[in-house]
Design a protein that fits this description.
single chain, about 240 residues, mainly alpha
Length: about 240
């Protein structure tokens, strides 16, 4: 019976993750194209996607590299973009923290926006899921996502400039993050953090090396934390 429910959770994850291929594919395709146009060879492009497996930070780092930004700025910017992964990890600990080390290691590698968003919603909705079912669901979600990230990065790197501009592949980047972020803005603190980070990012867009993004990320986190404290002191729903 346990094996049956685990398999069911895995395939449910596959079904829930499958629609994301519609945005992951053009996102990865675009990265492959942009990376090769920026001067990376096929091996470097693929290593970038396989080792980092974080589209937003990959684009950030790549843009800064093409601008000959200092290495410390490249690393700091990529880290700032990926700081959300630390918060993702912390919120998943109550659900996956008791899993064996090797499973947690694989889950950490495959922790992307989509696997987190689908996982945390599923775990909070179905609180009677066992640890095995939770892990199975998590890896089910990434099954259609991550392999296609690698595959379409490869295709983009191989075809390069042969993709016509009218395809407008860059639409996938904002659509992906809007689709993931909007449903998660469930409290006043979330909304305050989002508004502050967006405002700062727009106001500071002219700063060199995209350093405004660093300030926007930090400002958003501070605003969200302060909003939670303010709402808790007044007995409001956080």
């Amino acid at each position: 019976m346990a094996s049956s429910t685990t398999n069911s959770a895995y395939w449910q994850g596959v079904r829930d993750g499958a629609p994301f291929v519609l945005v992951v594919a053009p996102f990865a395709l675009l990265f492959g194209v942009v990376a090769t146009e920026a001067g990376l060879n096929l091996l470097e492009t693929m290593a970038f996607s396989v080792l980092v497996i974080a589209g937003a930070s990959q684009f950030t780092a790549l843009q800064l590299l093409t601008e000959n930004a200092p290495t410390v700025i490249v690393l700091a910017s990529a880290l700032a973009v990926n700081l959300r992964m630390a918060m993702y990890s912390a919120s998943l600990v109550p659900h996956l923290g008791a899993a064996p080390l090797w499973q947690r290691a694989f889950a950490a590698y495959f922790l992307v926006d989509q696997s987190y968003a689908m996982g945390i919603v599923k775990y909070e909705r179905d609180r009677d899921m066992s640890l095995r079912e939770k892990m199975a669901y998590f890896f089910g979600v990434v099954t259609p996502i991550c392999p296609n990230w690698y595959l379409f990065t490869l295709i983009g790197a191989l075809v390069g400039q042969k993709i016509p501009p009218e395809m407008a592949l860059d639409f996938a980047v904002p659509i992906t993050f809007i689709a993931l972020t909007a449903p998660m803005l469930r409290t006043g603190a979330h909304v305050a953090a989002a508004l502050m980070s967006v405002t700062l990012a727009l106001v500071l867009a002219g700063l060199p090396y995209n350093s405004g993004l660093l300030v926007a990320g930090i400002g958003g986190m501070i605003t969200g934390a302060q909003a939670e404290l303010w709402m808790e002191r007044r007995g409001m729903k956080v």
